[in-house]
Amino acid sequence: MVVKNFFKYYKVVMKENIIKKQWKSPAQQKYYYKNKEELKRKEKIYRANNQDKVKQWKKNYYWNHKEEIALYNKEWKAKQPPVVKPVKPCDWCLQPIGKNKTKFCSSRCSDQHKIYIKRKGPIWMWRLYSKYKIWKIFYQYIPKIKRLFVKKIPKFFLKFFLKFFKKAYKELQKLRTHLKYFKYKAYKAKVCGHWRVYRHRGSTEYKYTKNFCSDKCKQIYENKIAEAKKQRNLAAWGTEHRPDEETRRVIKNKKHLEWDKQKKIDDPGYRVIRRTRLRMKKVLGRGFTRKQRGEVSVYEQLGVKNGTELRAHLESKWQTGMTWENYGKQDGWVIDHIIPLKYYKDNFDLAKDIEVQKKAFGIQNLQPLWWLENAKKSAKLNYESE
Question: By the 8 A CB rule, do 233 and 241 touch?
Answer without folding.
Answer: yes
